[in-house]
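Q: Could you fold this chain for me?
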Amino acid sequence: VARKYEERDLKLLNKPMETKAEFNRKHEYILKDYPNAFVNYDYRGYTVYINSGKRLYHFWGRNAKDSGEKSQTTEMQVRKSEPEVLSLLNRFRPRKLYEVPTEQGFCLPYGFIAGDSGHEPRNIGITYRLQNHPDVTIFFQDLGMKPKAGKEDDLNEKDYVIWLWNWQYQWSAVSKELIKPKWRSIEMDGRKGVGTFVKSVYKDGGLNYGYVAYVQGDRQARNLKPDLLLYVMQDSRQARGNPPMDKDELEKLAEHIVSSIKRR
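A: Sure. Below is the predicted structure, expressed as structure tokens.
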């Protein structure tokens, strides 16, 4: 697919194509199997998929910059990253809901990494889908110390939330309206932040509602006070014969979740 895009750009924009060797260097990948897991390595990083305890877990390493050096290959990335991957696989295990491990480590939703001090770089998120309302998705994210997930380092709280609505959430809507009060004072983990509740309208006349809450972390102590992001998002197409959740119910659900989030 990537090669076809290059051919298109050559035809339309007269943009030179990369040599076959350079293209292969950038797009080669290696899949390696491990017990209950497999890892996809490429020339800049890796992605880990774990199937354990009837749950799927997804980890990824931070991508290195493309140095342009011919030695930056997928094979080199395997040699460099596999010890880190093996360490993670050896220390990770599933965790039951509300289980508090006795050993030192880092808890994440339904998982535990033994020996993790909590100071390692992280960016952790979890998604839930409501059984009775499959049109509603709940996502919570701890953006960690050096998230680099979007514009959170460049913008203040309000501008970051605006960026999320403009570029990330319900992007196929033809119009979005911030429901009053447009900017809501919220607290997550005992820290103040901003909340927004939005009505989105689509070409076919359909409506969806969404709620985003965001707390900006302490840039000097993100391991203790990370950026926190929650959204409760509706996609009525996924209702599957069930009545879509109504506006007031979604707003009430989102506000309840926001108020319940705390560091434990």
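A (continued): The helical segments are 2-13, 20-27, 74-91, 157-167, 247-260.
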